[in-house]
Amino acid sequence: MSPHLATDFAPHLAAGFSSGLPADFAPEFSAAATVVAAALGAYLLLVEPWLGRRMYASLARRRASEPRALVRYFTLTVTLWWAFAALTVTALLLSPGVTAADLGVALPGDPLFFFPVVLLFAVIAVASGRSFRELAKEGRHIPGRAAIEAMLPRTGTERRLAMAAAVTDGICAELLYRGLLIAFGVGALGLDLYLAAALSLAVYALAGWYQGGTGVLVLALFGTLLTGLYLATGSLLLPIAVHAMISVRDLLIPAPELPRAQGGTA
């Protein structure tokens, strides 16, 4: 970030300390920022579900025959997410009437709530991850593994990229789906806060279409939790932490061995 952009961004960050979205929450998007935010919202609603399904299907077809297919998939995914995050920051900088706190870039006001919830989900992620590994060792069914099997890493490089993709997903998805879309729905579209949150949740759920109807339902339930945490704290920090921990756990589920005919072990 250049010194000029850093200077412009400082007053936005200065306002970024809150303990919940206020009742009079109404970010004022400039015309230019409205165009940027509307374009991102349209992409997330109309393109992301289709593109995500297409990309995953392509990965699943190439996974066994192309050794670097997953590396390319994760690299492209991480690049796209950070590009969208940069556009979100651009929309913020283009709007003097929008603060960082309006997009959830704020510290939660109640650490007595924040830290126990983070600890709870850390325990859940570690315990369930360990359970998944035990099930894999025993050759038993792992819930949900089949839906994301093509994304599960098998090499050290793939595991490192999987963790990077999981953390990126936690940060950038929350910034866009929770931070930007809710603020845009209230500030630019004039929606009630909870209606804007419900619509952002619906858009987020559609991103699970690459896993079919079950994926949409799973993301709807998970997104409901994350949206509730955001509305309760006014900060994306807790949803990001929970999202990232669960994503890391999911992407580190032991992958099934490939059959010999596909280049794996017997």
Automatic annotation (TrEMBL):
Keyword Endoplasmic reticulum: no
Domain CAAX prenyl protease 2/Lysostaphin resistance protein A-like: 162-246
Pfam family membership, one: Rce1-like
Coiled-coil intervals: none
Keywords from the UniProt entry: Membrane, Transmembrane, Transmembrane helix
Transmembrane segments: 29-52, 73-93, 113-132, 180-210, 216-242
Keyword Transmembrane helix: yes
Full protein name: CAAX prenyl protease 2/Lysostaphin resistance protein A-like domain-containing protein
